[in-house]
User: Which sequence fits this backbone?
């Protein structure tokens, strides 16, 4: 408890330093920060006694002391950002160190009228109307305490606005580098994405860090999708194996918008992702795909909530876990259908592959339905690599280990082949191939394209 | 389609057919709960000291507990435990059927319980629990020849204390949960079944529970023990007369299956669900759990839940023995303002253990139907298998269907599969039936019955017929 108090004290001292700032920040954001910190002080870190945190113990985070990360550009951070960059394949690439925008490492470019990609801090200073309208309005501080913590320390991050009717070709890549080379750091990166009516974009968030670094990333992303807009969003988490990563992504979709979320979690010692989607207009469509590939003592907890508010919305969800060694996975996915959300068609599926007897999975797929004219299904499977399939491959002359590796790769490929953003897909496929000693040019992707669900 | 809606409404709005009150003078305890009441119940039942001590231990523990109000998907007014009567017994205790109150017999007749000659035709041995004390136990001598003990729980405490002491609380300890602890303190009666080693019980054992005296919580306790290689199929069916006040019901059922033993436990529950405005109805908080203690043991729970204002019930199986099997088949129907939060727990401990869960939920009117289940496969439960299927059918736009499964797997050789779906009756299905000259009402019934077929198939013959009838009480008059 004293640890927590100490922590809060530290937070508060940081806050006052922050709010003193250089006097350029807007007063309303100060208000938001103060309210959020007060909220966090009141509720504190969640405990395993709370149902939503039952399988994820965050006390290692609460009991550690972290220094608030500085945005200084260091050599190690530069190397990390270069390693994970997409280069010319990206339409724009923005780099953040400990959540602070790095103009020297970034390439924003001109992408079209009404498109703005850059630092959130600058957007707050300029008082961009979309920022004032949406920032902190969707990811509420009264839900998850970590959102309150993030909002309390809100300073910088990314602001992406896609203008009305604009079609951006190529992915917009946001790289968040946690630099913990010299000390344990905490960063609270914030992303606000506002997609205008009829716009179409691909946005990738990469979360990476200095290798072996012990740090804590507490990220919050808000996505507002206007009518008829389309967002293809990827989230790649490849933090250091000592890092803590807590993230909330809040998506609000208007009529006939289409948001595809692809979340891959490969790194981090302890990860908790909350993904909440509110389908707030008719005919809005949502696709949530997730891939978790972990081993060692890694722990990943994915919570997804699909909130069907309006009628005629389809949603598709597929989460896959590959768990090795002593890794533990948690999946809690809820489909909530409001009384007015008739003709909802929601499908959810979670599948887990256990590669080791010490690995563990807790799956909680839930349906909460208050409308009658709906079709909602969920499925969940957990098991080992299918021995019949292994046997088949062996009759074809494939070695035992190679067969197992190949099947594991194929299991994950079910997710990767759905990813449209080429550099993301390639990175995931390479990761899977490298993990299982398979040749780097292995591409199962192309075989599965006939699948109607592959989008 | 407006005609459909109104049709469904009339179907859903049917009155509870079996609401009637039997006028028997009850020998009741004053309302309220304290140590005196616990002692009173124990004294009334002529129990030995160890039983009273056990009750008191439970009562004292209960005082330290709080009612679970947050996690179940249920909304109800707080229960006034001090305004509930904890003991009520029909006054005259009779030895044979001829002496039994004719009024009581008439009640059974209305319910179609095969007492007297009909029991032989139906091949059912009936231990009728009327409120709290067993009134008539039949077929006992026949069963006794085979060494089977089938009697009321009270009798078992007096006559077979060694068995009761050995097994009571071994599956559901007195401190298990709020309602089980309450039951442990104040339970009045129930059934006790003991099947000795290698005996196959030749008939379906059945008990009818009926909540009768007004304001009486009924707290039965049932214990079934099947020794090595034994087999028993036990039926429990309930209907209750119409009442306006909420009646509390907190039962405990414990099953123990030793090596190679099989226990099949079937329930049809049709207690008073409250009227169409949600007034009255039974509060049903039940703890049911079975333990497969030995290798190759098997426990099957089959339930048809159409009654009660609130159902809170999770028949579970602890699969301790290697190769043991747990099964759960359930149909739960909620209409008007009924709420059901029901499901199962399958705890896989032994190797090669298997469990199957099939749950069918039907919501109509403003009913809320929740499936809540846990499948836990522990590390040493290698090669274990689980299959879960939860389907929900929605009739009406004010009802809800919810599914909250928990799946935990801790080894690589086991598999767990879960599937759930929620939908309404397809308009094309109804249309097809109508083109074949089947009325809408019949079509709805056919489809609902087909929806529940997987579960009904698991019920013993007599019960399957009754289950379809009970479903009909809520949905339709005559089901084909």
Assistant:
């Amino acid at each position: 408890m004293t640890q927590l108090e100490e922590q809060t004290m530290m937070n508060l001292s940081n806050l006052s330093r922050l709010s003193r700032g250089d006097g350029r920040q807007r007063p309303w954001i100060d208000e938001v920060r103060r309210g959020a910190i007060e909220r966090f002080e009141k509720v504190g870190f969640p405990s395993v006694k709370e149902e939503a945190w039952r399988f994820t113990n965050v006390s290692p985070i609460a009991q550690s002391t972290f220094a608030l990360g500085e945005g200084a550009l260091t050599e190690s951070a530069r190397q990390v950002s270069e390693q994970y960059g997409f280069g010319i394949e990206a339409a724009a690439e923005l780099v953040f160190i400990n959540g602070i925008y790095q103009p020297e490492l970034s390439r924003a470019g001109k992408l079209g009228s009404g498109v703005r990609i850059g630092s959130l801090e600058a957007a707050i200073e300029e008082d961009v109307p979309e920022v004032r309208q949406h920032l902190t309005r969707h990811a509420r501080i009264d839900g998850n305490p970590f959102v309150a913590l993030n909002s309390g320390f809100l300073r910088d991050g990314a602001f992406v606005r896609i203008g009305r009717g604009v079609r951006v070709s190529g992915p917009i890549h946001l790289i968040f580098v946690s630099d913990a080379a010299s000390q344990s750091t905490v960063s609270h990166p914030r992303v606000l994405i506002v997609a205008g009516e009829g716009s179409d974009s691909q946005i990738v968030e990469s979360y990476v860090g200095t290798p072996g670094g012990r740090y804590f990333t507490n990220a919050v992303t808000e996505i507002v999708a206007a009518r008829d807009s389309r967002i293809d969003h990827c989230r790649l988490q490849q933090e250091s194996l000592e890092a803590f990563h807590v993230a909330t992504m809040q998506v609000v979709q208007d009529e006939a918008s289409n948001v595809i979320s692809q979340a891959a979690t490969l790194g981090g010692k302890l990860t908790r992702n909350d993904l909440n989607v509110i389908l707030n207009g008719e005919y809005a469509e949502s696709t949530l795909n997730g891939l978790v590939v972990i081993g060692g003592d890694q722990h990943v907890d994915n919570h997804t909530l699909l909130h069907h508010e309006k009628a005629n919305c389809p949603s598709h969800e597929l989460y896959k876990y590959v768990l090795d060694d002593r890794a533990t996975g948690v999946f809690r996915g809820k489909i909530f259908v409001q009384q007015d959300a008739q003709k909802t068609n929601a499908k959810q599926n979670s599948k887990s592959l256990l590669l080791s007897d010490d690995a563990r999975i807790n799956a909680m797929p839930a349906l909460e339905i208050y409308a009658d004219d709906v079709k909602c299904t969920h499925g969940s499977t957990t098991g080992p690599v299918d021995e019949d399939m292994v046997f088949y491959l062996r009759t074809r002359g494939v070695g035992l280990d190679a067969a197992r590796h190949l099947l594991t790769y194929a299991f994950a490929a079910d997710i990767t082949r759905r990813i449209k953003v080429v550099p993301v897909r390639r990175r995931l496929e390479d990761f899977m191939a490298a993990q299982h000693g398979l040749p780097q040019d292995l591409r199962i992707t192309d075989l599965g394209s006939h699948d109607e669900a592959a989008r | 389609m407006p005609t459909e809606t109104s049709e469904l409404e009339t179907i859903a709005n049917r009155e509870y057919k079996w609401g009637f009150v039997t006028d028997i003078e009850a020998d009741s305890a004053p309302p309220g709960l304290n140590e005196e009441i616990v002692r009173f119940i124990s004294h009334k039942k002529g129990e030995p000291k160890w039983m009273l001590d056990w009750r008191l231990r439970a009562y004292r523990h209960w005082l330290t507990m709080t009612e679970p109000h947050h996690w179940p998907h249920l909304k109800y007014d707080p229960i006034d435990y001090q305004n509930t009567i904890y003991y009520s017994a029909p006054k005259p205790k009779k030895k044979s059927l001829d002496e039994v109150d004719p009024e009581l017999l008439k009640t059974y007749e209305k319910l179609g319980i095969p007492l007297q000659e009909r029991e032989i035709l139906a091949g059912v041995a009936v231990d009728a629990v009327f409120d709290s004390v067993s009134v008539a136990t039949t077929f006992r001598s026949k069963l006794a020849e085979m060494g089977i003990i089938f009697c009321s729980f009270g009798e078992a405490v007096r006559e077979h204390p060694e068995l009761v002491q050995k097994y009571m609380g071994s599956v559901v300890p007195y401190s298990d949960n709020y309602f089980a602890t309450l039951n442990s303190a104040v339970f009045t009666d129930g059934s006790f079944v003991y099947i000795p080693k290698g005996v196959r019980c030749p008939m379906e054992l059945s008990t009818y529970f009926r909540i009768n005296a007004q304001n009486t919580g009924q707290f039965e306790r049932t214990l079934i023990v099947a020794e090595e290689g034994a087999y028993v199929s036990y039926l429990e069916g309930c209907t209750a007369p119409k009442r306006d006040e909420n009646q509390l019901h907190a039962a405990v059922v414990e099953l123990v299956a030793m090596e190679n033993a099989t226990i099949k436990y079937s329930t049809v529950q049709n207690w008073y669900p409250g009227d169409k405005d949600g007034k009255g109805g039974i509060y049903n908080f039940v703890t049911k759990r079975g333990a497969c203690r030995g290798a190759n043991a098997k426990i099957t729970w089959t339930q048809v839940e159409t009654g009660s204002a609130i159902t809170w019930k999770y028949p579970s199986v602890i699969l301790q023995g290697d190769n043991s099997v747990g099964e759960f088949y359930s149909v739960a129907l909620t209409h008007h303002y009924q709420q059901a939060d029901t499901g199962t727990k399958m705890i896989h401990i032994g190797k090669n253990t298997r469990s199957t869960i099939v749950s069918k939920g039907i919501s109509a009117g403003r009913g809320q139907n929740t499936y809540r289940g846990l499948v836990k496969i522990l590390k040493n439960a290698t090669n274990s298998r689980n299959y879960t299927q939860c389907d929900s059918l929605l009739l009406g736009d004010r009802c809800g269907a919810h599914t909250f499964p928990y799946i935990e797997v801790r080894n690589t050789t086991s598999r767990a599969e879960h599937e759930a779906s929620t939908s309404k009756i397809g308009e094309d299905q109804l249309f097809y039936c109508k083109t074949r000259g089947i009325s809408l009402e019949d079509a709805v019934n056919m489809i609902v019955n087909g929806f529940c077929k997987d579960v009904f198939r698991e019920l013993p013959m007599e019960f399957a017929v009754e289950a379809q009838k009970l479903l009909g009480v809520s949905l339709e008059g005559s089901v084909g």
